[in-house]
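Late entry, hypoxanthine complex.
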Amino acid sequence: MTEEAKRFIQGHTDVRPAIGLVLGSGLGAFADELTARTDIPYAEIPGWPHSTAVGHAGKLIIGKLGELDVAVMAGRAHLYEGYGMQQVTYGVRVLHGIGARSMVFTNAAGGINLTLERGGLVLISDHINLQGGNPLVGPNDESLGPRFPDMSEAYSRVYRDTAKRVAVELCIPLSEGVYAAMLGPSYETPAEIRYLRAIGADVVGMSTVPEVIVANHMGMKVLGISCVTNMAAGILPQRIHHEEVLETGAMVRDTLVKFLKALLPRLEA
Ligand code: HPA
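Prediction complete; structure with ligand written out below:
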């Protein structure tokens, strides 16, 4: 299936991106930075699930960031929409198919660690998969990767070090922490947030982890950045609204764009 998508995309552009970027809820602004761009709505790409979530543009944008060729997924499919593990990881498989060997994932997340603040950026150092499934379940395609892939450095240390250096250079505050992935779509209960804190999670979201597993399986280098769009349930005396998540995304857009613009060219293959 990914073969057809690959041919379709390569029929639309001569750009051959070595790096892929996924923009999460409310974080789509970066796409405007690309030049010589080709926009391909997900709905047109064979086999590509098209997201229904509010705040997700739903297109693949291939273009140039300066000299660098990049493939940007503006919007992603989520398990909570009813998509399966194969569907939510389809985009990463296709990007690998068209030549990407590095992936940068962004997402909106709730802050669990009490030192975090709404609007802050968190470099993902590791994750905890609580989504109840794994995209690699089923027959293994040995041509893509091993049956039992190692996950001891799922988020490249070299990339994290580079990200920290770039953040310092740009005076962008950047925390580092563990991302816990929940199925959603309901936000967590305060008791679940206390549990997640106890098991070592710093931020919580509903995406990214299946994509990171598949990327690691195929030997891609991964960087993950969470935007703390809200403090997690029970921390503040207020309810969590999707609107707050999107509003915070809009608040941090300029910072995130500036960060990604400086960072992507510095991530070596
Ligand atoms: N929980 C889960 N996912 C999220 C949150 C949250 O608080 N905020 C943004 N995505």
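The mean pLDDT is 94. Will revisit in the morning.
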